[in-house]
């Protein structure tokens, strides 16, 4: 039974965790507990009723609230901040009703009303039992007859057990350099992570993990969460003056305002959060399973080995040149051929053509059909690149609709990569894109689309907005979701990839539409090891598109470059016409081996054995869910001599079962391998792939 109503509130239970909340004597919705699942519903603590501290802190300041508004003498981060029409800016929510719905994902809905104003807040708690996750979001409804201006609406505030010091883990980076793990002790005050870039961003990701500073990859308590949103977001990790740690997460309130008109509702994006006692590895595996089984459109479908010609030909594409590459790719065992940028009307470099989404008549005089037909005849599917949200000033679309871009009429329009951003908050822009992309998909046999976005926002103006311009931040993202969702509905078999100059739009919101993420434009394999590791804290390997390109070719063996990419959804992006026969034969060998291990990598459990972000000798392992087989990859970059590599201890084996590991003599129990480890001899810039088999 995953949900209980008790005298003191509600208990939400997952397979291994418990979460309790309830109204305290002051009528505040308080957090009671988040940790290991307890034997009995009465075991969970009662709602706290802390005393205040002098005349400067009323009890409310010390009360851990689930969804705090602005009221009383309380100065910690609120989840809700607004203005009523008469200028009152306090919001005082109290219990109205509770409803519980059972089923596979039971849901608790708590409705709360402002004590004076006709504002209804519905707090949703959905329990994802198998994944130890609670999903939360909030709906606000204006039941009055004057508008309410929303200024902040977070999705949730998550509270940690009080009294301890916590360490925050998050990822940070830049274009070409995403997903660096950061671990920092939280101290008094507020640590803010955010995006103000209109999209998720390369710089931070709406994901957090907290522990007491002792959790490691395999053991220890970790509380973690992620926001399903692809626009401006904010995480505020706060330690109060009374040593209470909480994480508020949701839409960024920076430059945000929303007119909630009479009778209207506003819903936040969802945030999922979980608790694991199995360290950071355990937390990642829970998120991976959730993403694969619940979030992704085709979560169980194996991803094909693709070839993408971008790094080989950039904008210089045409039918015969692409066919030449396709023929080599097919002979190597590639299953999906992707034509990237450069194929559409007038696109010869990055100064023109974005917006004009039909084949360039010079490069493709008979359209894309001859290329697609040849690709299909070679036994491969065909994929195409688009960047729907963007327009170049030098394009037919911009000449026809200069008012369709984000801009302020009085200011110059800042270009980045020579492009401007179409205002996807506008329904007419959304409809235009749906029509153009739908036609492309109807007229061509396209199995895969890479959706790119190559700049961030500058002038966030929407002069023709029907109401409050600052709704743009949310309406734009909803517009992206509407375009993408409509196309997905009309073409359900198409697999989409989310790219934003690499990993600029990687989040659980976009993964409801896209099955894959282009993790980084950096395809240099050493750098890639670290980027892939950071990515793996949040996302499963089947979402991680990874190409073998020519980056690193002059100092890394092809086997190393393949091994790195085989840790995700394998792709190839090198200039195949320049590869020798023996390189192509070796590539064919690794592609065939990848196909054999694909179910393990894409659907298995991930174990990070040694971190490439902190060690020059690193390893990662994937195990089948039934523990019958696995595959282990180890990499050595540069280690000064003398160096002795430590043994690698595989993980996730059945301790009692007997296993053999490729390259090591003998059969041992799972426990024997996991605790005894294996020795791996590697020179600098060397790697190995080892199969693990139950015998
Ligand atoms: C940025 C992407 O990340 C690249 O892979 C490539 O698609 C280029 N855009 C094309 O302009």
Describe the structure.
This protein is α+β, with helices and mostly antiparallel strands and 695 residues long. The mean pLDDT is 97. The strands form 6 sheets. Strands 6, 7, 8, 9, 11, 12, 14, 15, 19 and 20 form a 10-stranded antiparallel beta sheet that branches. Helix content is 20%, strand content 31%. Among the domains are: 3-275, alpha-galactosidase from lactobacil brevis (Beta-galactosidase, Chain A, domain 5, Distorted Sandwich), CATH 2.70.98; 610-694, Sandwich (Immunoglobulin-like). The structure holds (2R,3S,4R,5S)-2-(hydroxymethyl)piperidine-3,4,5-triol (DGJ). Residues 310, 340-341, 385, 452, 454, 499, 501-502, 518, 521 line the site of (2R,3S,4R,5S)-2-(hydroxymethyl)piperidine-3,4,5-triol.
C-alpha end-to-end distance? 38 Å
Q: Name the helicity range.
A: 10-25%
- Biggest pleated-sheet summary: 10 strands, antiparallel
- Count the helices. How many? 12
User: CATH class of the domain at 3-275, anyone?
Assistant: Mainly Beta
Rounded mean pLDDT is 97
Please identify the structural class as seen in this structure: alpha+beta
The number of strands is: 36
Rg over alpha carbons: 26 Å
What is the beta-strand fraction?
A: 25-35%
**Each distinct ligand:** (2R,3S,4R,5S)-2-(hydroxymethyl)piperidine-3,4,5-triol
**Could you name the CATH homologous superfamily of the domain at 3-275?**
alpha-galactosidase from lactobacil brevis
What's the architecture of the domain at 3-275, going by CATH? Distorted Sandwich
What does the overall shape look like?
Answer: globular
| CATH topology group of the domain at 3-275 | Beta-galactosidase, Chain A, domain 5
């Amino acid at each position: 039974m995953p949900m209980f109503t008790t005298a003191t509130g509600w208990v939400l239970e997952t397979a291994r965790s418990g979460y309790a909340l309830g109204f305290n004597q002051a009528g505040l919705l308080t957090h009671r507990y988040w940790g290991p699942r307890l034997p009995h519903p009465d075991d969970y603590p009662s709602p706290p009723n802390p005393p205040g501290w002098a005349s400067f802190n009323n009890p409310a300041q010390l009360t851990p609230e689930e969804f705090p508004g602005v009221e009383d003498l309380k100065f910690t981060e609120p989840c809700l901040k607004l203005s009523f029409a008469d200028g009152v800016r306090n919001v005082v929510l109290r219990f109205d009703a509770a409803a519980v719905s059972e089923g596979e994902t039971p849901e608790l809905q708590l409705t709360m009303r402002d004590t004076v104003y006709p504002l209804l807040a519905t707090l949703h708690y959905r329990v994802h039992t198998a994944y130890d996750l609670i999903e939360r979001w909030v709906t606000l409804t204006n039941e009055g007859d004057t508008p309410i201006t929303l200024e902040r609406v977070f999705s949730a505030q998550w509270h940690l057990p009080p009294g301890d010091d916590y360490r925050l883990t998050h990822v940070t980076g830049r274009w070409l350099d995403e997903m660096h793990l950061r671990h920092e002790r939280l101290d008094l005050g507020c640590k803010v992570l955010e995006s103000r870039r209109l999209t998720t961003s390369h710089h931070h990701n709406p994901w957090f993990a907290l522990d007491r500073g002792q959790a490691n990859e395999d053991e220890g308590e970790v509380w973690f969460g992620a926001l399903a949103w692809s626009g401006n977001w904010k995480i505020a990790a706060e330690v109060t003056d009374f040593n209470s740690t909480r994480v508020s997460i949701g839409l960024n309130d920076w430059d945000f305002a929303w007119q909630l008109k009479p009778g209207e509702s506003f819903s936040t994006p969802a945030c999922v959060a979980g608790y694991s006692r199995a360290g950071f590895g355990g937390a990642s595996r829970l998120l991976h399973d959730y993403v694969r089984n619940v979030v992704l459109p085709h979560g169980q479908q194996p991803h094909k080995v693709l070839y993408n010609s971008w790094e080989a030909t950039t904008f210089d594409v045409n039918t015969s040149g692409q066919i030449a590459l396709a023929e080599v790719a097919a002979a190597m065992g590639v299953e999906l051929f992707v034509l990237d940028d450069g194929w559409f009307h007038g696109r010869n470099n990055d100064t023109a053509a974005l917006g004009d989404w039909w084949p360039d008549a010079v490069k493709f005089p008979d359209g894309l059909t001859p290329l697609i037909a040849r690709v299909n005849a070679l036994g491969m599917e065909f994929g195409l690149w688009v960047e729907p949200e963007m327009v170049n000033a030098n394009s037919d679309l911009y000449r026809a609709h200069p008012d369709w871009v984000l801009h302020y009429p009085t200011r110059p329009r800042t270009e980045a990569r020579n492009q401007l951003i179409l205002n996807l908050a506008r329904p007419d822009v959304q409809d235009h894109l749906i029509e153009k992309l739908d036609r492309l998909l109807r007229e061509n046999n396209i199995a895969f689309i890479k959706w790119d976005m190559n700049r961030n926002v500058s002038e966030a103006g929407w002069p023709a907005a029907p109401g409050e311009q600052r709704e743009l931040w949310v309406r734009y993202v909803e517009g992206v979701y509407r375009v993408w969702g409509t196309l997905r509905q009309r073409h359900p078999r198409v697999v989409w990839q989310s790219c934003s100059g690499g990993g600029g739009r990687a989040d659980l919101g976009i993964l409801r539409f896209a099955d894959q993420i282009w993790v980084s434009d950096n395809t240099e394999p050493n750098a890639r090891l670290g980027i892939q590791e950071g990515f793996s804290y949040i996302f499963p390997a089947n979402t991680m598109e990874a190409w073998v390109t020519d980056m690193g070719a002059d100092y890394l063996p092809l086997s190393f470059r393949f091994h790195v990419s085989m840790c995700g959804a394998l792709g190839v992006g090198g200039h195949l016409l320049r590869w020798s026969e023996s390189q192509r034969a070796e590539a064919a060998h690794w592609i065939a081996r990848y196909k054999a291990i694909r179910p393990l990598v894409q659907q298995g459990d991930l174990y990070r054995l040694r971190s490439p972000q902190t060690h020059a000798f690193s390893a990662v392992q994937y195990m089948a869910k039934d523990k019958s087989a696995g595959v282990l990859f180890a990499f050595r970059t540069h280690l000064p001599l003398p160096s002795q590599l430590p043994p690698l201890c595989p993980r996730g084996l059945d301790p009692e079962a007997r296993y053999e590991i490729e390259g090591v003599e003998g059969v041992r129990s799972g426990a024997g391998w996991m605790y005894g480890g294996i020795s791996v001899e590697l020179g600098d810039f060397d790697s190995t792939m080892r199969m693990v088999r139950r015998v």
